[in-house]
Amino acid sequence: MKRLIFPILLIAAIQAFAAGPAEGTTASTNIPEAAYPCVSSDSKATFRIHAPEAKDVKVDICGKKYDMTKNENGVWSATTDPLVEGFHYYFLIVDGVSVIDPASETFYGCGKEASGIEIPEDPETAAYYTFNKNVPHGQVRECKYYSDTEGRQRRCFVYTPAEYETNHNAKYPVLYLQHGMGENETGWSKQGMMANILDNAIAAGKAVPMIIVMDNGNCDYIFGAKKGEDMAAFGAGFTPVLLNDLIPYIENTFRVKTDRENRAMAGLSWGGKETFDITLANLDKFSHIGSFSGALFFLHGGLENAYGGVFKDPKAFNDKVKVLFLSMGSEENFGAPDISKALTDAGISNIYYESPGTHHEWLTWRRSLNEFIPLLFR
Amino acid sequence: MKRLIFPILLIAAIQAFAAGPAEGTTASTNIPEAAYPCVSSDSKATFRIHAPEAKDVKVDICGKKYDMTKNENGVWSATTDPLVEGFHYYFLIVDGVSVIDPASETFYGCGKEASGIEIPEDPETAAYYTFNKNVPHGQVRECKYYSDTEGRQRRCFVYTPAEYETNHNAKYPVLYLQHGMGENETGWSKQGMMANILDNAIAAGKAVPMIIVMDNGNCDYIFGAKKGEDMAAFGAGFTPVLLNDLIPYIENTFRVKTDRENRAMAGLSWGGKETFDITLANLDKFSHIGSFSGALFFLHGGLENAYGGVFKDPKAFNDKVKVLFLSMGSEENFGAPDISKALTDAGISNIYYESPGTHHEWLTWRRSLNEFIPLLFR
Fold it and tell me: How many CB pairs under 8 A join A and B?
């Protein structure tokens, strides 16, 4: 059977795009040639999709479902309320089925591939996570390695600073940086703009050149998908992978410093919980700890009993842990200020950062990373 | 406003997955926890989606649309005919709208993000593109650079062989490797399994250690999307980017050999056309040329007139071009055997490879790459 696939693809392309002048600026998260979604100057997003046979289409973004309306050409559209700046996952709901907008790039979140839209901030405010052609750029390397713990291939991403390419004798400190529940190892470099944040901070002398390792925290599906799983243990499978497979792989492959003073870990949301679980049980291996909107519930059991009693001796803890960093968006409910206060009251040194105006979303975590990295390895 | 997003995500997760025992093996291209699609031992794929309110759902794969049928729980399913082994893009059609299957990872193709499914081959046959824990692994680096030609940031991916990390004085030859129309710079390392192919071939001594650069060929949307564009010029914007921005960036950033004998270019489909357009006009810069299912129509104008008459003097051409490689799947209609024969008849040395049983799809191109790289830089 001989056949030419171009005509089929052509039809798909014409169906996919609902072209026309944008009511605002085309979103940076769109695929090439997609005029919609676009964002107005007052941060309202307009979505469009060509779906002449559909009976009901909605856009589902920032916790709200907006009904879309159909025009005479079968193009559905909706404009949202003003949205908080930064990155948001979203879905279209076509006759009850939640699907990715064909006009969007995809971002792994919500336990699957999702559409995403960037609501632009003021360029000056956004400069720290924006590509700057005038600073040296690091690289994000996709690395595959074999995990003896799991008996299978795994993948991590490794940011190396620009000078790593030329400074062949230097060794670098390492930050292990985790995504949240329902996300995976791609999140920090896509949604998180991690490389731009590091490039800019290192070039400005605000952060020391470091290596950042992003692996899958074994919590990349949403709980509920595995019935009967113990919530407290969710993601715990990552601990032996990190300690026994990943750290040795990184230290055998990259020019890194291997002492505890030069090893940090941080994570967002469920990755913050994993960070506390792993680092506080292994303070011989980690000296800098960050939890961004961490899913931390240990106050319920009393601070004294938490993490094997690690907080019982504040002086010993403060001597060992160079940085204990907690953060949260001002508009979310993840308890970081209460935890910070309880720790402070108990004599545990810690730093709390609150991201103004943001929710449990990536702008909170971009800002948190940008606040955290200047504190590391000093 | 304070809110917790977990409950919303939980509902989305439950809606997204239609769990149950798989009729065959879960596809390797699925997201974690998705049991469907699955593939039977005779290469039939079964797809499922929970869509109780939808009126009509189809799966669109390998040029055929299969009607799905709904059960009493609102789960639609369909099983295909036996499919050719290898990777296939596919879409679900929900009440007339072509969407990505929520159970699939996404792959950029068809001018947008697409679902994809891997139909497994016999493991021995597939060994050359399969991760092997017993060979050293290279890395695929995401690199951002500024293009003066376009006045904007661009992205390329760069494969470095395993020994690049330790062999600090060695310099490596470079292959520039292009995707096809409607695809982008991610294609070769995702759908193409490029890193596994190189790791395995280098470890076996079948290919010399080399660097592979994969950039966007400026043809990542399907023609028709830009009305009135001249087909022959489609993607031509990549030529000055490659010559004036990308090659200098690579040669300034990586330890590479910079003479024409150590610079190759190859591409699939439209990337094959771009490869011929660029290399044959710049034989002072390229010595090895590959076209995998290339969109090459130059025979229509006569071989003598093609590419500025570069084929008029076979001896001069053969002295300059170390490898001219053409390939195609046996089941597609891209004219490579006719071109190879015409070139041979005119005295132009070339190599033709035909992939048995495959169409205009990635298995053709994985095999083509595996046949091409042993010929390079000898």
Answer: 233
Length of chain B: 378
Decide if B137 and A145 are in contact by the 8 Å CB cutoff. yes
Interface test with B, best of A139, A143, A211 (most B CBs within 10 A): A139
Q: Which of B53, B98, B108 sits opposite A102 (nearest CB)?
A: B98
pLDDT tens digit string along B93-110? Answer: 999 999 999 999 999 998
A222–B32 C-beta distance less than 8 A: no
- pLDDT score of A226: 56
B33 to A102: CB separation less than 8 angstroms, yes or no: no
Hey, what amino acid is at B311?
Answer: F
- List residues bridging with A351 in a β-sheet: A325
Measured between alpha carbons, how far is B275 from A214 in angstroms, rounded to an integer? 35
What's the DSSP call for residue B306? G
Q: Residue B244 above 50 pLDDT?
A: yes
Partner-chain contact A13 B221, CB within 8 Å: yes
**A6 to chain B: closest CA residue:** B222
Report pLDDT digits (tens) over B157-182.
999 999 999 998 999 999 999 999 99
Would the pLDDT of A4 be above 80? Answer: no
Three-class secondary structure assignment of chain A:
CCECCHHHHHHHHHHHCCCCCCCCEECCCECCCCCCCEECCCCEEEEEEECCCCCCEEEEECCEEEECEECCCCEEEEEEEECCCEEEEEEEEECCEEECCCCECEEEECCEEEEEEEECCCHHHHHHHCCCCCCCCCEEEEEEEEECCCCEEEEEEEEECHHHHCCCCCCECEEEEECCCCCCCCCCCCCCCHHHHHHHHHHCCCCCCCEEEEECCCCCCCCCCCCCCCHHHCCCCHHHHHHHHHHHHHHHHCCECCCHHHEEEEEECHHHHHHHHHHHCCCCCCCEEEEECCCCCHHHHCHHHHHHHCCCCHHHHHHHCCEEEEEEECCECCCHHHHHHHHHHCCCCCEEEEECCCCCCHHHHHHHHHHHHHHCCC
Does A91 sit within 8 Å of B5, measured CB to CB?
Answer: no
Which of A97, A190, A231, A268 should be substituted to probe chain B, the one whose Cβ sees the most B Cβ atoms within 10 Å? A97
Average pLDDT over residues B4-13: 40
Sign of CA dihedral A277, A278, A284, A286: negative
pLDDT in tens, A75-92: 999 999 999 999 999 999
Tokens of B340: 């190879």
pLDDT given for residue B226 in this prediction: 56
pLDDT at B228: 60
Taking the C-alpha atoms of residue B265 and residue B281, their distance in angstroms, rounded to an integer, is: 13
CB contact under 8 A, B225 and A332: no
Residue that is written with structure tokens 């750290």 in the block: A247
Burial A196-213 (b: 16+ CB within 10 A, else e): bbbbbbbbeeebbbbbbb
Predicted confidence at residue B229, as pLDDT, reads: 64
Q: Choose among B110, B220, B333: nearest Cβ to A3.
A: B333
CB contact under 8 A, A32 and B63: no
Rounded to the nearest angstrom, the minimum Cα separation between B58 and chain A is 13
Contacts of B141 in chain A (CB under 8 A): 139-142
Kindly determine whether residue A95 and residue B143, on different chains, have CB atoms separated by under 8 Å.
no
